[in-house]
Structure formats: structure tokens, C-alpha cells
Design goal:
The complex is a heterodimer of chains A (198) and B (422).
Chain A (H helix, E strand, L loop, with lengths): L1 H22 L13 H7 L14 E2 L1 H10 L2 H5 L35 H4 L3 H11 L10 H14 L9 E2 L33
Antiparallel strand pairs in A: 1-2
Chain B lengths: L3 E2 L2 H14 L3 H8 L15 H9 L13 E2 L14 E3 L17 E2 L7 E2 L6 E6 L5 E4 H6 L3 E8 L12 H5 L2 E10 H8 L7 E6 L6 E5 H6 L2 E6 L2 E2 L9 E3 L12 E7 L6 H5 L5 H8 L4 E6 L10 E10 L5 E7 L7 E2 L1 E2 L9 E9 L4 E9 L8 H8 L19 E3 L5 E3 L3
Parallel strand pairs in B: 6-15
Antiparallel strand pairs in B: 1-5, 2-3, 3-4, 6-7, 8-9, 9-12, 10-11, 10-15, 12-13, 12-14, 16-17, 17-21, 18-19, 18-22, 20-21, 22-23, 23-24
Classes of the chains: A mainly alpha (198), B alpha+beta (422).
Chain lengths: 198, 422
């Protein structure tokens, strides 16, 4: 019995080893270190459209309104979210107008993020990595959820008490969800940008 | 990871010097004295030790040469209100194919400052759908086999408008440099890309951590992680200490201050991706990869011919998908075309210098160039592009994606050169 189990163990080990060699070619140079899981977690701030990497936390528009003032958003974007120096965040009622020109890649009066972004995750990601100005990356997940909810609510996309979290945020049906296209063909070496284009 | 603005103090000092100009000639001269080492003989110290310092110092160009970058007038930073975040290279003064690092066009994802990053602290993290996530120091990256390649980088916003006067304004968001670094495919193979992966997301270390989605096929093809530019460490304006080079793709993909690459299985729609979304799949196809394009840099808008006689017409041609095969020049508004000579060797996905010997008869004319690259596609005119999109050819027509249309220059009888789109 003992001999048989040893043989079985050896066989399994062999299969595992061969399988590993097939599935993962070994490194050629062996330069660089393996990061720890904590290092990867700390650095990885990407958020994909279905919200895979969204952290725990939650917030509503009602909670976001005071944060919008406290964190200084209103200072640059205006209390109403339009007509100030920074890009327009809340669709203007027509009485206010930005005095500073602002072109892509950014948001302006005709390009409010809550109305133009195909996914709500784009807003969450941008607020999380890029705001507030000068203190980028300092907001806590609850604050980012609340601010995203506030901007979505003020632009008429969600209701004031809708709770935004890792599950609900990616499900928000954005007004411009169908408003973008990727190239029909995946990029390939040595191919023109678009067949038949002059 | 520090990404503080650098040189703020230097900027203030220079502002003070400029303000000094308003005080009168003596004050201005006093303000300039400490920095004008490169003046004429009379500006030099007679101390031999001081003179030798100038011989040894990091080289400056002659003070007689004034060629300079200018900010894009209409492209304001979304956060540094009223300040630019795109700066144009002076193509009208360019010779050969290499843009000096000091004159390379500059664009940022948002900020109007240059991050100050300590290379000893900088790391590149490679993770996501890989068998072995890896983190590299700069020293480790430099141990790996290096490659050097000459590539242009062009911003998608490089779009000639009727109001532009010079080639710097119409085309100054393209530049060409020799980049040195490690093939991205080497790093990806080292980490072991998993079978179901199809995209990468690259990210910078600056305040906004600018980030773009790039097809994995491109990442494995010819992308590189560059630490060198034109024979020295990459300049801070260009992404020191590390920049992703995605040859032939629009500038926003060439992530500066590169700190992280995540291998993924879908398009991530990052903020920068979002800023460039197109409603039409065909327009999207014209957005990533730069089309065959060329422009005459002499004679070009704002320059003046001295009178009838011989001139070499010269300019630059490039393509985001291959090498320039030929460039044609017309001096009669596009009725007849003559094949130009081009400088050899011609590099793939690089600026190519072309020239045509020409005798100007002193009459008003319109000159233009068009480029054909090795896949056979020819640079279109605005009329050809409008026809493809079934749009009227008027000033409202905006070429979708990267605008690679033919640029006309009108030479008036007095020798002055003007934007042919005006």
C-alpha cells in the first residue's frame, strides 16, 4: 500500500511539473522581483467597466452633497457644478457659462462626464485617481462613491437615495452607454488603419 | 513615488527676470547677467577657468539660434486654468529627421507642470493576467537587453485649422526621436502572459496617473519601455525616468513616467480612453494608429521667399503603420505631382525627410505634399476625406480620427507664404 501511494505521489508530481512547464514558460532572464499581494493591491487602481476592482464601500447623492463642498470640488467646479473655471460637472441650466475653453480629453459644457461617459466606473476611477486637485488619491472609497452618486443624481441619471457600491455602480444605465464604438478589427501588424479609406 | 512639480523656483526666477525687462534696459541687463554665459565675446569673463567651464558644461546651442516651442493657444489644461498642457515643436526650423529633445513636442494628461521623479525610487509593476507578476527597478531594467529605435510620436490633436499661420501651429504636435529601452514583449514573456489576455492597461506615476488601454497584439509587437532618448536619459518633459513607446499609435498611449502595466482581457475605458471615444467604428479605426501623413516645412506659413529663383522644397513624412515609400510634391495646387527625393535610410514609423529642387517663377502658387507608405495607402486631401464620409467640404468639415490630410501652402507674388486652408 505504502509503495503504491508513493508511486502515485510521484506520478502526480510529474504530471503537475510537466503541466506547469507547458502552461508557463520559465523566465529567461530572471531579473526583477515578485511583488507582494499587498504591493499589487496598493498600486492597482484600475477599474474595469463591470466594476471588478471596485473596493468595498458605498455612498448616496445625499451624502455626496456636503462632501462636494468639504473637499473643495465646488471651489473649482462651482457650487452648481457649471460656469466655473474647472470642467463642467453638472449640466448647465443655460444661465451660466464657463469662461475658460476646455477641449478633450476633458469635460466641458457639451461634454459633461455623467452624461458622456459610457460607464459610471469611468467617473469613479477618475475621481479616485485624479481628485481633488493637489491631493489626488486622498479620497476614501465611501467618499468616491458618494461624489459619483451626487454627480449622477444632479445630472438626472440616478435617484437621490440610490446607494452606489461595487455592485450597483457598474449597473447604472449611462445615457451614452451606446455612444461609442471600437474598431471593427483588432489591431494587426502591418495593416492599414481602415480598409478602403483613402 | 514623488510627482511634485519641478523647477517652480526656476520659473519664478525667470519671471522675475522678465518683469525686470519692464524696468528699463539697465535693470534688464542686470537681471540677465548671471545666466548669459553663452553671450558673445564681450559677455565672457576673462578668467580662463570660467571660460573652460563653458567648454565643459552641458552643451547649449548658440545664442544666435532662437527656435522655440510655443503652447497650443486653444488647448487649455482642464485643471491649471488658463495654462496649456500641449506644447508645439518648431517644425519650420527642423532639419533632418530627429527632433532635439529640448524641442520635442510636449503633452500631458492634465497638468501644466513636469513631475520630478527620483529614478532610485521609481518602479515598474507588471501584473494582471500573467503567471509571474514582476516589479522592476530602473537598474534592473537596464540590465536587460536594450534596443534603440527611431520613432515619431504624434498627438491626435495635431489638426491643421484655417486660423493657424505656421507649420508649428498646423503640425507641431509631432516629433521624432531615437528611443532606447527594453522591448515590452521581453518583459511580458518574462512575466508569462496568460492565454485569455487581450489588452494591457499602462499607467504613469504623475499626479493624474494617466492611463490607456492598448491591444495586447501591439504590446507584443513593437512596443518598448524606454529610458533613453536621443542618446541620454529621457528628459523629464518626455517622461523621465521611463516611458512606454507604442510606435505609430496616437501620443496619449505613449505613457510617460510609466509605473504600471496590467495585462487584462478587455478594453478598460480609462479616463484617457474615454476622452477619445468615437461613436463610429470607422472613426475609431482612424484614431489609434496614425495615418500616412506629410507636410512641407519650407517654404511654410509665415516664411518669405527672397524672390524668384532656386529653392529646395523640404518637409517631413511619416506613417503609423510602416515606412514611407514615396512623397509627391505639387507646386500648382495639386494638378501635377513630382516625386520628391527622400533622405536614406527610411525608418519604419519615423519621420522621413524629403526634398524637391524647385525654381520659383515669382508667380502666386499653392504647394503641397502627399505621402504614400509601404502598404500602398496614399495620404488623402480634405476633399477625398470629406467624400469618404459623405460630408460637404466646407470649413465645418472635421476629419474624423487622426487628421492626416494634405496641407497646402499658398505662396503670394511677394514671396510671403500663407496657410492654404485659410
Amino acid at each position: 500500500m505504502a509503495w503504491r501511494s508513493v508511486a502515485r505521489f510521484a506520478l502526480i508530481s510529474m504530471i503537475v511539473a510537466v503541466g506547469a512547464a507547458l502552461s508557463a514558460q520559465s523566465p529567461t532572464f530572471g531579473v526583477g522581483c515578485a511583488p507582494t499581494a499587498d504591493e499589487v493591491r496598493a498600486w492597482d487602481i484600475s477599474i474595469r467597466p463591470d466594476g471588478e476592482e471596485l473596493p468595498a464601500g458605498h455612498g448616496t447623492a445625499r451624502e455626496g452633497a456636503p462632501i462636494y463642498i468639504q473637499k473643495g470640488c465646488a471651489g473649482c467646479h462651482g457650487r452648481t457644478g457649471s460656469g466655473a473655471n474647472a470642467p463642467t460637472l453638472i449640466k448647465s441650466d443655460g444661465t451660466t457659462k464657463s469662461t475658460v475653453p476646455c477641449l478633450a480629453p476633458c469635460v466641458n459644457d457639451n461634454n459633461v462626464m455623467a452624461l458622456h461617459a459610457p460607464y459610471a466606473t469611468v467617473m469613479w476611477d477618475y475621481i479616485n485617481r485624479g481628485m481633488p486637485l493637489g491631493k489626488e488619491g486622498s479620497l476614501k472609497p465611501d467618499e468616491v462613491y458618494a461624489l459619483t452618486a451626487y454627480l449622477l443624481f444632479k445630472n438626472g441619471v440616478i435617484r437621490e437615495d440610490d446607494v452606489m457600491d461595487a455592485q450597483s455602480l457598474p449597473k447604472v444605465v449611462m445615457p451614452n452607454r451606446q455612444g461609442f464604438a471600437l474598431p471593427a478589427q483588432a489591431w494587426k501588424h502591418g495593416t492599414p488603419r481602415l480598409q478602403s479609406y483613402p | 513615488m514623488t510627482s511634485k512639480p519641478r523647477g517652480r523656483r526656476g520659473f519664478l526666477k525667470k519671471s522675475a527676470a522678465l518683469a525686470g525687462l519692464a524696468l528699463g534696459p539697465s535693470a534688464a541687463a542686470a537681471a540677465q547677467t548671471p545666466e548669459s554665459h553663452s553671450g558673445g565675446a564681450d559677455a565672457h569673463s576673462n578668467d580662463p577657468k570660467e571660460l573652460a567651464k563653458e567648454l565643459i558644461a552641458y552643451g547649449e546651442r548658440s545664442h544666435f539660434v532662437k527656435s522655440a516651442r510655443v503652447p497650443v493657444a486653444e488647448r487649455m489644461s482642464p485643471d491649471m486654468f488658463g495654462l496649456t498642457f500641449h506644447v508645439l515643436t518648431p517644425l519650420q526650423d527642423s532639419v533632418g529627421i530627429i527632433t532635439p529633445s529640448s524641442l520635442h513636442y510636449v503633452a500631458t494628461h492634465r497638468g501644466s507642470f513636469v513631475p520630478d521623479i527620483d529614478p532610485a525610487e521609481h518602479r515598474l509593476l507588471l501584473h494582471g493576467m500573467v503567471d509571474r507578476p514582476l516589479i522592476f527597478t530602473m537598474d534592473e531594467l537596464k540590465r536587460l537587453p536594450s534596443v534603440s529605435r527611431i520613432h515619431f510620436i504624434e498627438c491626435l490633436g495635431n489638426r491643421a485649422q484655417a486660423r493657424h499661420k505656421t507649420v508649428q501651429e498646423t503640425h507641431g504636435l509631432t516629433s521624432c526621436a531615437e528611443w532606447t529601452g527594453v522591448a515590452l514583449s521581453l518583459l511580458l514573456k518574462e512575466a508569462g502572459v496568460q492565454k485569455s489576455a487581450s489588452w494591457i492597461v499602462a499607467e504613469g506615476a504623475e499626479e493624474i496617473k494617466g492611463s490607456s488601454s492598448i491591444p495586447l497584439g501591439k504590446a507584443m509587437d513593437d512596443c518598448m519601455v524606454a529610458y533613453g532618448m536621443n542618446g541620454e536619459a529621457i528628459r523629464p518633459q518626455q517622461g523621465f525616468p521611463l516611458r512606454l513607446i507604442v510606435p505609430g499609435f496616437e501620443g496619449i498611449h505613449q505613457i510617460k513616467y510609466l509605473r504600471r502595466i496590467k495585462v487584462v482581457d478587455r478594453y478598460y475605458m480609462t479616463y484617457d480612453d474615454y476622452g477619445h471615444i468615437q461613436p463610429d467604428a470607422r472613426a475609431a479605426a482612424l484614431t489609434n494608429q496614425i495615418g500616412p501623413k506629410s507636410v512641407i516645412t519650407f517654404p511654410s506659413g509665415g516664411q518669405r521667399l527672397m524672390g524668384p529663383g532656386f529653392y529646395q522644397i523640404t518637409g517631413l513624412a511619416w506613417s503609423g503603420a510602416g515606412a514611407v515609400r514615396k512623397v509627391d510634391i505639387s507646386t500648382d495646387g495639386g494638378q501635377t505631382w513630382h516625386q520628391a527625393e527622400h533622405q536614406s535610410p527610411v525608418y519604419r514609423i519615423a519621420h522621413t525627410r524629403f526634398g524637391l529642387n524647385w525654381k520659383w517663377d515669382g508667380k502666386e502658387c499653392v504647394i503641397m505634399s502627399r505621402c504614400t507608405y509601404d502598404l500602398g495607402t496614399v495620404q488623402p486631401t480634405r476633399a477625398e476625406s470629406a467624400k469618404y464620409w459623405n460630408k460637404p467640404l466646407d470649413s465645418s468639415f472635421r476629419v474624423p480620427g487622426n487628421d492626416n490630410t494634405v496641407q497646402p501652402w499658398r505662396i503670394a507674388a511677394d514671396g510671403s507664404v500663407h496657410n492654404g486652408l485659410a
